[in-house]
Amino acid sequence: MKPVHPVALFRMTVLGELISRQYLPRGELKAIINELAQKHYNIPNSRHTQISKKTIESWYYAWKNGDVDALAPKIRIDRGQSKISALLQEAILKAKQDNPKRSLNSLLELLRMQKLEGAQSLSRSSVYRLLLSHGLSRPIETTQPKELRRFEADYPGDMVYGDVMHGPQIEINGKVQKGYLVTLMDDKSRLILHSAFCPGETALDIEYVLKQSLLRRGLPKRLILDNGSAYRSHSLQGICARLSIQLIYCKPYAPEGKAKLERWHRTLRAQFLSELSGKKIYSITKINQLLWAWIDEVYHPRSHRSLLGQSPLSVWQKGLEFVKPLGTLAHRLDELFYHRVKRRVRKDSTISYEGKCFDVPYELARKNITIVVEPHQQQALYIEDDEGKWIGDITPVDLQANRRHKRAQPDNTRSASVGVSDSIAELALKQQQAQLSIPHSNQKK
């Protein structure tokens, strides 16, 4: 499966509201596009914060006709080249380095006042690309205050929040270490879609909990996560893009954006962790078994004041008609969670992964390849090309079997038919024989 381009992932987040709607009444598309065009975005590698209606509309129809892959940018023919003269490039870069706060307009005005040749015809886009290629351009951050209001999703499965809580010391693979509780909660019902103590708070741990929640509770429309680096992993973004889940990130240092999950953490500490024996170190398997039993038997059936006396389970069951099941995606779910790893094949047609050595087809020797792996079991599966197609198997190295294996030999039939040149020794012998067969000119008759 072809990896999702990072730009395509960003465009998916912009289109999230359009993609998550199963049906758009007449005139609704235009209204939503107008609303999206009014919002501000942290656009990668751009100082702008807004996107035009025409651009959003083109992204929407591209996604509709070609899914997420159609949102990837097309490579420019003149990529990496600049039509700005070398002298003018040097002046632009020096002016920006002297004062990094200078805007594009200020740079253009300064160059024109200096009456440099070609400055009058400079465009903002060409100067911006030059600065970007030298790492001298970055988005402008806004400090405008944002209005906060308490809200709730319209129906179960519409909005899901995810977060990580630092837990107690637990035993993992025979070692005692800190456990991390990864949780996904439905906003409407407060139902815990899945929660588990994990060895860490990495992208892999979050993907594990997401996969279990999809199997148990179906597909959410929006997934709202913290702004940490683990949540912004390319693998997690690619999974959500393939499943048409809108991935939203909370503002940094804004805990009010996940207040319901913070309340869940307080409840769990007070009512679950406090009941565990303080003198006992639980294994990760045991503490998760206790956690899941407590969630299903105590937390889910209990009435919540924030739900007007209803329980999370009853609210979820009343809205089951809005929850989107996995359907045929259930058969491909494992494949969607596979990871892609780049490797350089050695000349003996082997690669290394997680400390183990594997054989690959000998035709790939000394080439860069992409191997598909099952990340949770750390199992290498097969090799694929840039388009996501299978091109070969990968197997653990068997030294005894390789010793008996008959090596493939190069095809020399073509060179043999053309004729192989004699060696130097053969040519010398022929020359010697030729000289012996010719009579000497001074020999007497």
Shape: extended
Q: List low-pLDDT spans.
A: 139-143, 414-420
* Total count of helical runs of at least 4 residues: 15
Radius of gyration: 32 Å
CATH architecture of the domain at 159-327: 2-Layer Sandwich
What's the helix-strand series?
A: HHHHHHEEEHEHEHEHHHEEEEEEEHHH
Give the rounded overall mean pLDDT: 83
CATH level 4 superfamily of the domain at 159-327: Ribonuclease H-like superfamily/Ribonuclease H
CATH class identity of the domain at 159-327 = Alpha Beta
The fold-level CATH name of the domain at 159-327 is Nucleotidyltransferase, domain 5
What percentage of amino acids are in beta strands?
15-25%
Please give the number of β-strands.
13
What does the main sheet amount to?
6 strands, mixed
Account of the 3D structure:
The protein has 445 residues and is of the alpha+beta class. Among the domains are: 6-71, no CATH class; 159-327, 2-Layer Sandwich (Nucleotidyltransferase, domain 5), CATH 3.30.420.10; 338-404, no CATH class. The protein has 15 helices and 13 strands. The protein has helices at 6-20, 28-38, 53-66, 86-98, 104-113, 124-133, 203-217, 234-242, 259-271, 284-299, 312-318, 333-336, 399-404, 413-418, 424-437; strands at 159-172, 175-186, 192-198, 222-225, 246-249, 282-283, 339-344, 350-353, 356-359, 368-374, 379-384, 390-393, 395-396. The strands form 3 sheets. Strands 1, 2, 3, 4, 5 and 6 form a 6-stranded mixed β-sheet that branches. β2 and β3 form a beta hairpin. α1 crosses α2. The chain is extended, with a radius of gyration of 32 Å. 22% of the residues are buried. Mean pLDDT is 83; it is low at 139-143 and 414-420.
